[in-house]
Specification:
- It contains eleven helices and ten strands.
- Helix content is about 40%, strand content about 20%.
- β5, α4 and β6 form a beta-alpha-beta unit.
- It has a single domain, classed as 3-Layer(aba) Sandwich (Rossmann fold).
- The strands form two sheets. Strands 1-2-4-3-5-6-9-10 form an eight-stranded mixed sheet, sandwiched between helices. A two-stranded antiparallel sheet has the order 7-8.
- α3 crosses α4.
- By secondary structure, the chain is of the alpha/beta class.
- The relative contact order is 0.14.
């Protein structure tokens, strides 16, 4: 009962945050990054909200088309996978829009079970689903008017970077693969950030297993009734946070992440919560497993001051069959700063443009 009360309280706090964020939304497409498109203007980059089915689930995405887009012409295309906890309206949208300004058709989609996409339980965060999301973006954009199917690239940011590495292992429709501030979700969920939870792996796996057991205990009962019966999903992560708690967070990744997601770039569809049962899959997965199957050109970018850089370094060294691979450091940047700070975003974009121009 105590656990159910805690979860209910967390979800109530999350709802309060969502309501505030909804009130603060001003962009008609609910984009929260600086310089976001607020209206489609002829002759400029345009945004096209779309939906499509992926394994029976409705996926919500935004397609960005270049200035003076002509569907009878031929364009290279890029899929952009969002960070863990993120959605298409945040940094994934920023990079998608900026790459469209450089002449690419781009797509940023909300992961299944997350954001504006469908799927229950909400905030399920399983690696196989996130990887399939990237394949699904490729399926959709391959048939978008004007897209040259022989010139499709991939960009993954944070957790989306790890899942993009996984997707590229088998999806040879990608002719060029890039990551920004790559986050190996399996490694961190298993070992803890910077290997800080090695002693509690089995304990956390047991909690994840118990959470799954609770989810299925009353799976035939409607979701809105399950909190009374113990069948409602259990969530891990952070539902809300105070300014004092943010200030006292030791690591740059999480302190700046809380500021980004809960303050400066908050969005009602974005959350740090995920189903505890997802850990059963996350903790036994690794972005670098079979990474030698990547034989496409590979660019991996990370902030020179990022406390997550060790994940990019490890993955890069293991990608032994990637062609023309390059590790690019964004001078002076931390992990989260690569999401929005113009001086760091511009460094990343300039490198991405060079990379995609060469390989697409």
């Amino acid at each position: 009962m105590k656990n159910r009360i805690i979860i209910a309280t967390l979800l109530t706090l999350a709802t309060m945050n969502i309501t505030k964020a909804q009130t603060d939304q001003k962009n008609p497409y609910t984009l929260v990054y600086k310089g976001a498109i607020s209206e489609n203007v002829k002759g400029k980059v345009n945004i096209h909200p779309v939906t499509y089915k992926l394994n029976g689930i409705d996926i919500a995405a935004n397609v960005y088309t270049p200035a003076n887009y002509d569907p009878s012409n031929s364009y290279p295309a890029i899929t952009v996978a969002h960070p863990n906890g993120g959605i298409k309206e945040q940094t994934a949208g920023l990079y998608a829009q900026k790459l469209a300004e450089a002449g690419y058709i781009t797509i940023a989609a909300d992961a299944a079970y997350q954001g504006a996409s469908g799927g229950e339980p909400r905030h399920t965060d399983k690696p196989q689903f996130r990887t399939e999301d990237i394949h699904g973006m490729t399926d959709f954009i391959s048939h978008y008017p004007g897209v040259d199917v022989n010139r499709i690239g991939a960009l993954g940011i944070c957790g989306g970077g790890g899942y993009t590495l996984k997707a590229a292992q088998s999806d040879k429709r990608f002719k060029a693969v890039a990551t920004l501030s790559m986050f190996n979700s399996g490694l961190v969920r298993r070992n803890g950030f910077q290997n800080s939870q090695l002693e509690t792996i089995q304990e956390r796996l047991k909690k994840a297993s118990d959470a799954r057991a609770q989810e299925v205990a009353n799976s035939n009962i409607p979701l809105d009734k399950r909190i009374e019966t113990g069948g409602k999903p259990i969530y891990s992560g952070v539902a809300s946070i105070t300014n004092e708690e943010i200030a006292n967070t030791a690591t740059d990744l999480y302190r700046e992440g809380y500021e980004y997601y809960y303050r400066t770039h908050a969005h009602p569809n974005s959350t740090f919560l995920y189903t505890t049962s997802s850990l059963m899959d996350l903790m036994t997965w690794d972005a670098t497993d079979q990474i030698e199957q990547i034989n496409q050109p590979l660019l991996m970018m990370a902030g020179s001051k990022a406390d997550t850089k060790y994940m990019t370094d490890e993955a890069f060294s293991k990608a032994i069959n990637a062609t023309d691979k390059e590790l690019f450091l964004i001078d002076g940047a931390t992990h989260i700063q690569t999401y929005y700070k113009p001086e760091y975003v511009n460094q990343a974009l300039n490198k991405l443009k060079q990379f995609y121009q060469k390989h697409l």
